[in-house]
Each structure stands twice: as C-alpha cells, then as structure tokens.
Amino acid sequence: xxxxxxxxxxxxxxxxxxxxxxxxxxxxxxxxxxxxxxxxxxxxxxxxxxxxxxxxxxxxxxxxxxxxxxxxxxxxxxxxxxxxxxxxxxxxxxxxxxxxxxxxxxxxxxxxxxxxxxxxxxxxxxxxxxxxxxxxxxxxxxxxxxxxxxxxxxxxxxxxxxxxxxxxxxxxxxxxxxxxxxxxxxxxxxxxxxxxxxxxxxxxxxxxxxxxxxxxxxxxxxxxxxxxxxxxxxxxxxxxxxxxxxxxxxxxxxxxxxxxxxxxxxxxxxxxxxxxxxxxxxxxxxxxxxxxxxxxxxxxxxxxxxxxx
Amino acid sequence: xxxxxxxxxxxxxxxxxxxxxxxxxxxxxxxxxxxxxxxxxxxxxxxxxxxxxxxxxxxxxxxxxxxxxxxxxxxxxxxxxxxxxxxxxxxxxxxxxxxxxxxxxxxxxxxxxxxxxxxxxxxxxxxxxxxxxxxxxxxxxxxxxxxxxxxxxxxxxxxxxxxxxxxxxxxxxxxxxxxxxxxxxxxxxxxxxxxxxxxxxxxxxxxxxxxxxxxxxxxxxxxxxxxxxxxxxxxxxxxxxxxxxxxxxxxxxxxxxxxxxxxxxxxxxxxxxxxxxxxxxxxxxxxxxxxxxxxxxxxxxxxxxxxxxxxxxxxxxxxxxxxxxxxxxxxxxxxxxxxxxxxxxxxxxxxxxxxxxxxxxxxxxxxxxxxxxxxxxxxxxxxxxxxxxxxxxxxxxxxxxxxxxxxxxxxxxxxxxxxxxxxxxxxxxxxxxxxxxxxxxxxxxxxxxxxxxxxxxxxxxxxxxxxxxxxxxxxxxxxxxxxxxxxxxxxxxxxxxxxxxxxxxxxxxxxxxxxxxxxxxxxxxxxxxxxxxxxxxxxxxxxxxxxxxxxxxxxxxxxxxxxxxxxxxxxxxxxxxxxxxxxxxxxxxxxxxx
Lengths: 309, 594
Description:
heterodimer; A: mainly alpha; ABC transporter involved in vitamin B12 uptake, BtuC; two-stranded antiparallel ribbon; B: alpha/beta; Rossmann fold; six-stranded mixed sheet; four-stranded antiparallel sheet; 23 helices; 14 strands; 12% strand; elongated
C-alpha cells in the first residue's frame, strides 16, 4: 500500500485539495502553453498580468464602487487588454528587430515588464494584502472531505473554460487557424491567415484564463503584489511537462497531476519539501528530455523540425 | 561617506557575479537565471563551515566555490542538449530547488537562513568595517575579470561564441562542444560560488532572501544592461544597477523614503530592460567595443556593414590558381581510377520511419581527385554528407577513412580524423568576423584548452598568432582578405560561401565534402569559384561535391555518382551519365525525346 497506514479521510482530502489547486495550475498552464506554443514568446510577464487582473478588479470594486461581478469581468478584460498590448507594443516590434536572437530579447523584455510591474503595483497599492469580498463563503462537506463553495465553483469554471477552449480549437475555423499558425506561421500566411492577428488572439485568450484564475485566488485568499510568481512558475512547469503543442485538456490534466503530486508528497515529506518535490520531478523530466532529445522535442515543438529542413 | 563605501563593496561583489555570468551567457550563449543559486551554495557552504566547524574564512570560501563548481557541472549535463526555452526553465527550477532545499535544513537556519556569521579574517586581519573589505573585494574582482577576459578573448572564447551561434557548424570543424559547455558551466559556477562566499562574508548572513530569484534577475539584468559578451560592460552595469538605489534615495529633487526609492529603482531597471531591448539590444557597450580603443580614437572596422558592391569579384592572387590543365574527360576518369582510395563507403543505409534516405550505398573517393554526387532534388545527397560526417548515424554500413572506421564517431571526431564538410546554407558564424570564422577552422590550437591558457600562456599566445596568420593566408587564397574584420552577418551569400570554403580549408582536412559550392553566387565569378576548387584538388586534397548544375559538374568532376531515391543507380563520367535517356528523365523529370 503506497499510502501506508494513512486513513482514507486524509487521502481523500489531499486528493480534493490536489484537484482544487490543480484546476488553477492547469488553467494557467493552458494559457501559458497556448502563448508559448503558438507565438514562441517566453512570456514571463504572464505573472504580472495575473497579479494586475486581481488589482484591477479590486480597484473597480473597492475604489470605483462597482458591484462585484461587473468589477470582476471588467478587471479581467482590462488585464486582457494589457496582455494583448504587451504583444502588440513590446514583443512584436522586438521580434521584427532582433530576428535570430528574438527569443532572448523577448525573454529579457518580459523579465523587465515583470520587475517593473510588480514594483509599480507596490507603489500604487502598497505591499499589504487587499481583500476582495464577493458572495458568501460556505463550507461544503462531502462525506469526509471538506472544502468551501469557492473551491467548487473555481474547479467548475476552470473545467468549463478549458472545455470551451478545446472545442474552439477543435471545431471552429479560428481554432484551425491557430493550429496552422502554431505549426507553420509562414505557410499559414500564404493561405491568408494573418499571424499577427492570431498572436493577438492567443495573447487575449491566455491572459483571460490567467485573469479568471486570479479571481478565484483573490476570493479565497487575498490580493498581494507577489501573488503571481508561484502559481505562474507552476504554470510554466505544467506547460513544459505537458508540451506546448498539446491539447488544452491534456495540459489541464497535467496541471491536476502536478498538484496531486504536490499534495501527496506531504504524506511522506514535511510540507516544506512539497514544492521542491515538484521541481525535482521537473528536473528529472528535463534530464530525460536532454538524453532522449530529438524525438521528444520534435513532438513538442514541431516548428523546430521545420527549421532544420 | 561610510555608506558609499558600503555600496562600493556591493558593486565589487556584483562585478564578480556579473562578469562570470557574462562568460556563460554572453560568450557561450547559455541563458541561465540560476547564477544567484550558485552564489547561495558558496555563501551557505562558507557560513556553515565557519559557524559549525570553525573553519577560517579563506578555505571556507574556496570550498564553497568548489561545491558550487560541482553542482554547476551536474546541472550542465542535462543543460547541454536543451533548447533555450528549456534551459531557462531548467535554471529557473535549479534556482528555486536550491533555495528550497537550504530552507528545509535546520542546521542551515531554515527559512531564516544563517545569521551571525563571524567577522571574516584574512591572514590575521579582521574585516570589521566596510572599508576593510574594499581591498580584498577589489583584488577578487580584478582577478575574476582578468580570468574571464583571458578565457573569453582567446581561442577558447572563439569556440564558445561558435557554439553560441551555431553548435552544429562548430562541431563540423572538430570542436568538442560537449566539453566546452561543461567546462564553461563549471568554471562560471565556481566563480559565482566565490562571489557568494564573499557576499555572505561581507553581510555576515546567508539567507534565502539574499540569494532569492530576484538576485539572479538582478545579476542577469546587469549583464544584459552592460552588454552581451562585453566584460567591461558588466562592470559598468554593476555600478549603474547597484548605485541607482542610493542615488534615488539621496537626490534632492523629490522627497522619497527608502522604501519608495528602492521600489522606483526596480521599476526603472525593469523598464530600462524593456527600452534597452527595443533601442539597443546589444547593451551599453556592444560586443567587441573597447573603451581604451575608443578613447584612442580607433573605430573598429568590423562594425561597418559591407554589401557586395556591383561588379565585386574576389581579389584572388592569380598565382595561387595556376593548375596543370586537366586532360579529356576520359583521361580524368582514368586518373580517378588509378588514384588510391581514401574514403571507402560500403552498404551505407538509413531509414527515417518509412522513408528510405539511403539504401546500400557504395562509393569511393580517390586521392587528389574530385568526385561529384548528382541527382534530382530529394535524392538524399545532403543526407549522405550527414551520414558520412556523423551528424546522422547510419542504420548499417561502414565508412572507412584511410582504413579507420568512422561510423559511430561524433561529427567532431570525424572532422579531426580529416573528413570535413561544408553546408548548403553556408552557416558562417554571424557575429564573428571573417577572420575569426576561418580561425575557428584551424585544428589543435593550444589556446582552445582552458587550462593551457593559464599554465602555458606563452605557447597559447604564440599559437594564436600562428593561427591568425594561417587563417589570413586562407582568406587571401579565396580573395576575401579585405573583409577580414567584417562580421559574417554582413556578407552577401556568395561572399559567405568563399569564407566557408576558407574555413573548411583551414582545417587542413584530407577529404572535403562541399555541398553546392557554386550555387547562389554571382555569375560573374562562378568560374573563379570553380578555379578555387580545382586549385584545392591540386594541393593533393580529396574533394567530393554535391551539385545541381551539370555545367559545374562537367567542369570539375573526375568521376560522378548518380543518386535517386536514396540509391546510387549509375556512375561514370558526366558525359556518360547525361547520354543515358533514363537518367536524364530521372534528373530533369521529362523525356528528352518528347
């Protein structure tokens, strides 16, 4: 028995926690993987769009005095506009200019946006935690497992968003255009798909997903300037583990798996080790990737195979 | 005043961090955001040894640097084969795991870290005040700067730049990319560990906060800001980045408290990174820029952009092209058969899934002759070059060079044994000058070994001069001497083919595989290019070309293999091959009778 002497209650509670956290990791991973896979931009500033989405809704609700739901929606949309603007006004000009070294230039610029953004947040809103109050919080008990109503809603909304995205990718024209651009932007241009437009759309979708994850996090915990770093780093891990060209559903499930791993390690190891354990898994994965390289990499980044031809 | 001395100490520590990261990031192109984590290893190791085991400061720092070096080497092993995105992710993970592990050990102070490290003593002197630290830190910074400069601006550094921009082309010239990456990771990690030992000794702390991911980003920002592959830029960058905070705090215009000043400092340097990437991606001081030369009024010739002027032809000394005239095609074919076999290929096969790229290939290259490989597009000609030179491993068959089996050897081993190839898409290293590109081709340079740069300095320097002279001779041979200082990226396609030829020749390899040597060059000097290839043959080298242009083949080739769908289906003189109706149809896609 891998769970040893543990009682069934603990295991089911850990499983529930894993699914709840995993829904957030998965949602962020889906957004990041979509952006990296389609545009090739290492969008480190994803974390700052996440954090700012929370602050935007807080400001609209607390300072402007809008009711909670319009404030949330407008906050997420404002963050989405910000994410799209990063592509339009920073990454794209850089990519045009830097050519072959664009990846590093964009990564550095993205780091710059992250550093500037997280400190601007502290200047404007202070470094103390802010509270977003919405609907009444209730505890739900399912058998031995306890969680709050926000947990349930956040999982449901994440699953719904991912399913919508998966359906969009699979059944609509836009989805096919996104996939075509991911495989070969030049070829897609030839048949009339504007990669510029697709990149903007992808940034919009990815940032929207981050914004909705930020909302549930803010409701459950609080809003603080550093809230974006940890979940987004987990999103990077999830996106890379799942492969950036994978379907949204697969990326999402990888997120859940990572969160479950994080929860279960707390059975054997002290809580301090759980985050380390996730990164150790990532390191092992990268080592395997390194020594079985071409097949795995090519299956994940089809655009690399194209360049070698 | 005291406070400024304090900041000067910090600048010097960050110089050590940034200069060593620049060797890794700027010269070798390995994007690492884990530099502070290696610093943490050095700092924590020093603190632990001093507090728990009562070690002296200096040996504790050195052991910390050694520990960082060992971890750096281990990290380098998977890092070697990862693309940039994955390398960033790997170093990000290393950075977080390292700090995560340190915080889980009570003996290392858990989440508080090691506090109260005793004052450092060096040779009996207490380093009690910030001013006591200036001299030792300055010495450390100067030493690290000189070490990195020596490594970066040498044959070793040239190979690093080659692997930064085109690892495959660098391997094709016989450089063991693997060893270079491991050694540069190891040595820069050791330097970061040393910097960590100094930093923790100076602060008397080793905490997760000191070596957080933010610190890695700060070091990274200094390097980018100062200039990639410019060490003086990193020194300057360390001053700018470390000193913005106190300057903001003390400027007389707006009343800022310390907290706002440090936030604004971070906002400024974040935005500066963005603006810098947009306006001046090369950083404050671009690669190859020297303040001393600039002060003396010398401008680097290499930074101007050259275009192939209308009517430009390579400036070749006609004497080097004098060759004994070849006989008729039949006579050349006879000579080919009489010359001894240098490269013997038997039963070479390769499949990619269901596609047969090469099937049971047999071919021979004879000494001092030119053999051509022709065939329609997609016949697998370039794949043959990849199979012969170890870039692709064949499923079966053997390739023997003067009796030595090449199958199973790496591209760099094959090149060192004397079989060197050029690339269809040329693959000149864009940011190295033409001369540096050709110097990269020269084999067995003493200065390519990191160790020998230091324990055999004179020999390395003498060798470097010799390498330069030899490379210059080859550039002259192809008529490109006037472009010696021009970066590869500024050349026209035809010119870069000439440099690529010079680079291949500089390897002194016995057997040269030239992939489409005359395609894409100005028609005015196609014949000059062919003269060059012929002159190479008359130096006694063995040449194999892949070529589409049958005029070129007819002029150069002593013997021709015809390849279609991965198989060699005919061989002989080009006249024999073109007179066959079936082959002409396979080649041109139409029947000549129609």
